[in-house]
Amino acid sequence: MKCSCLHDVRHSHRTTHFLVSLSRSSVMSSPGEQSARYVLPDNIVISEYDIHLKPNFDNFRFQGTSKISLAVTKPTKTIKLNAKELSIDPSVTYTPSGGSSVTASSVSVSKAATECTFEFPEELQPGEGELAIEYVGTLNDQMAGFYRSGYVDQFGKKQYMLSTQMESIDARRAFPCIDEPNRKAVFRITITTDAGLQVLSNMPEASRTVFNGGSNEKPVSYQTVEFMPSPKMSSYLVAFCVGQFEFVQDTTKKGTLVRVLCTPGKQAQCGYALEVATRVLAWYEEFFGIPYPLPKLDLIAVPDFAMGAMENWGLVTYREIDLLCNPDKLSTKRRARITSTVTHELAHQWFGNLVTMDWWDGIWLNESFASFMENLSADALYPELGMWNTYIHQFFEGGLELDGLRSSHPIVVPIYHAEEVDQVFDHISYEKGSAVVRQL
């Protein structure tokens, strides 16, 4: 059964094409369900975010400037965006293409709805323009949005790195945005910080400028790092990290740079994850018949991380235990854990990142397909780990067992408020959903 199943799937892309079609159709709710969703108005369409962040390690705050390229689709006096725990400067301006800037007459923030509303003195007319916003946020310790992660270095000293966790709806903690998966846009990220730190984002570095600051008594060197523009993508996939990192790297046969990064002193623990990532990236390209669409792929171990891993496009973040290992003490169980986590997140680089659910009620297919592919690819590349047999027992049989309980629920759960999505990240979504994907 195992061999025949793998043979059928590996030698035909019909399954993949069907699942891609399903991802588009499975989220097509009835008009009543769509109208019941609490989403932002459709009076604007955002094409690009140009975001400049200046994190401060001393007070764990950051300054932000966002220039948002958008099209007004109907006459309106208000623009609404998602924002959470951001102090927004009232001098918000909108500049229509070829016209003069207009300053918002009022800026209001709803903490309950995590929204900010910009009211303008006159109606904004249909057409393209730019919205400019300045704000201040917190580098929180809640492992959500743009946050700080503490660790003790190899010399016993407390250090911090900065990382992000935007999924499900915490991009709004880092910058004002339309924080909905189907409202994709291009992201241009720029970060200014101490010159001695490394800065990462979804895309490769485009430019780096070093300049002096501070005072005569205490001069400081700073850097501004600008990254290449991203493809159109959902806000929950935006990522950036700042800190002191070590890394190992390799290149796929098609020339994609793959790196595994960690905090100082752990570089020797990155090798196995690099091997898996490089191999499975090439395997997915062949299986899906679609090249990996970004110039590079970074995988980084974050000391404080709420999830197992997060599939940010081009900059995948991991809990340390799911990425790093001592090569001299690498058990089969640990190999399987790292292998499954890496293959799962890299499957998302296509299914979830390239092809994305319309709304959060499609999260089951997002995760189910990645769970299916993690085991299919792992079994093809590392058959000695026996991960397909484990998958059949854990996901397929486990999914059927879960479905027999009174607590079971449909894999497609209507979600009317985005805040409800975290309730859907359960074993039904992963195991029952993956069992259904295998049957398809």
Automatic annotation (TrEMBL):
GO terms for biological process: peptide catabolic process; proteolysis. The keyword Repeat does not apply. Residues 48-237 form the Aminopeptidase N-like N-terminal domain. It comes from the Eukaryota. Residues 272-440 form the Peptidase M1 membrane alanine aminopeptidase domain. Binds 1 zinc ion per subunit. Keywords: Aminopeptidase, Hydrolase, Metal-binding, Metalloprotease, Protease, Zinc. Pfam families: Peptidase_M1, Peptidase_M1_N. GO terms for cellular component: cytoplasm; extracellular space; membrane. Zn(2+) binds at residues 344, 348, 367. GO terms for molecular function: metalloaminopeptidase activity; peptide binding; zinc ion binding. InterPro entries: Aminopeptidase_N-like_N, Aminopeptidase_N-like_N_sf, M1_APN-typ, Peptidase_M1, Peptidase_M1_aminopeptidases, Peptidase_M1_dom, Peptidase_M4/M1_CTD_sf. Its cofactor is Zn(2+). The record marks 430 as: Transition state stabilizer. Belongs to the peptidase M1 family. This is Uncharacterized protein. It comes from Perkinsus olseni. The lineage of its organism: Eukaryota, Sar, Alveolata, Perkinsozoa, Perkinsea.
